[in-house]
Each structure stands twice: as C-alpha cells, then as structure tokens.
Design goal:
The structure is a single chain. By secondary structure, the protein is mainly α. The chain has 12 helices and 3 strands. It has helices at 6-10, 21-51, 58-75, 78-86, 94-127, 132-135, 138-164, 181-186, 193-227, 231-259, 265-292, 295-304; strands at residues 12-14, 91-92, 173-174. A 3-stranded mixed β-sheet has the order 2-1-3. The longest helix is centred in the C-terminal third of the chain and has 35 residues, at 193-227. Belongs to the G-protein coupled receptor 1 family. This is Olfactory receptor. Residues 41-290 form the G-protein coupled receptors family 1 profile domain.
Length: 309
Amino acid sequence: MESSNVSSEYGFILVGFSDHPKLEMILFIVNFILYSVAVFGNSTIILVCILDPRLHTPMYFFLANLSFLDLCFSTSCIPQMLVNLWGPDKTISYAGCVVQLFSFLSVGGIECILLAVMAYDRYAAVCKPLHYMVIMHPQLCLRLVAVAWGSGLVNAIVMSPLTMTLSRCGRRRVNHFLCELPALIKMACVDARAVEMLSFTFAVLIVLLPLALILVSYGYIAAAVLRIKSAAGRWKAFDTCSSHLTVVSLFYGSIIYMYMQPGNSSSQDQGKFLTLFYNLVTPMLNPLIYTLRNKEVKGALKKVLGKQQ
C-alpha cells in the first residue's frame, strides 16, 4: 500500500519526448508559437462573437463555446509540456496530474458532443432554412450546450477518480507528455479491465455516438444540396457547412487514426504527435478555418478593430 502511494507524494514523471533530446528545443519553439497563435485566435473569436450583435446567432454561440473549449483543451497540458521541454525536470505533481486528466477528459468529451450539436445546427440551416430560427431558438441552444457540458463533466467525474486510484506499485513514469487516460491505466499493477471497459463504454457514448449523429446530419445535408438545381445555390449550401466539416475531419480524423494504432513503440511515439495535433494544432487551426472562410466573422473583426463603421 505504501508503494502505491509514492506517486501521490512525489508526483509523476512525464516521459514525453525525452527519448529524442535533440527534438526537445525544436518542439519547444514550435509548440510555443502554435500555442500563442491558438490562444490569440480563440480569444479573438470569443471576443468578436460577444461584441458584434450580428453574430448573436446559434451558429456563433456554438462557435464561441468551441473556441472556449479549444482554449481549455490546449491550456490543460501545453504549458506543462513547455516547462518539461525547456529543462531537465520532467515531473508533474499528483494534483497537477489529476487536474490535467480531469480537464482532458471533460473538455474532450464536451467538444465531441458540441461538434454534433453544431452539425445539427448546420442541418437546420440547410434543410429547414425557413424554420431555422424557430427550430434553433435560444432555449434549445442553451439546453444543447448544457447537455454537452454535463456529459463531458460526468465522464471526467467518473473516470478520473477510478483511474487515479488504481494501484501502480510505485510506478511514476508516464509514457506521454500529459496525464492521459490510456497511459495511466497501462501503469497499473492490478487488473484494470473493469476501468478499461467503463472507459470504452464512455468512448462509445461520447465519441462514436456524436460522430454517428454528425454523419447522419451531413447525410441529410448532402441529399438536400443535391436537390438544389442551381450551381450557385449548391455552392452557398456547401459553403455554409465547409468550415464545420473541416474542423470535424481534423478532430475526429486524428483521434480515430491514433486509437486504431497497435501498441508498439513506434506507434506510441506516433500517438504522442497525434495527441499533440488534436490538442494544439487543431485548436490553432479552428479560428483560421472559421475566419478565412466566413465573411461575417471577417466583417466583425474589421468592425472590432475599428476599420469600418
């Protein structure tokens, strides 16, 4: 019992990219730049959505929530990773690991469900344009976001204590750059199959079910677009959904590819870079995707910056 509490007293060692010491300074510089861009971009999106009355619509309400989640997602682990990359100290306190795991599980789950909510919003906009504001009324938008937040928090509240209380027999080395659920479960020196099965159940409900709903929504959207006779109309409908579809592809593509890899050492390194991709690169790209392809956001940015009346 005493050895199982060693990590509680001394914390954990995040192995991260220490197997590639020559890469660490390069990764520090690149990740610092990407994190700064992600923080600036997502903060700007949130600010613009709040300040410009023209963006007080369901789509931008969901977008502001997505930007806030991206901020939380990156901030939950990237600053700690930058500290570990900068110097020889690779440790993280037990409390820090708990916070990191809880944040990662909750925010990741919320984002999966929020992307499904945004897909339903795009379905209503394309397939039911005349009834869009009636369908997506403010109360429904708040309820949908509350469901997303509630589901993600339940996932974290259940899985975090179960994972952290697994006996590790004094093992402190986490083969990752953050306290991620699979890496912590692998450290257990007891039978963790029950925790793994519960984790799989939550993954089906929080990751795969929202993905199925997204695919169904876009199936209906594709059918509606194909019924539009004019090329201009089809392009307008596609443009309405293209930003969200790009974000979904980046986020889910990296997650699905990562968890389909076998458990060898090369795939573990690959997994670290893929985790870094959806934890940092995707949050950095999301504001750019929505800004570059969206005239309303561009106009709001110009207005906030004082470039137009």
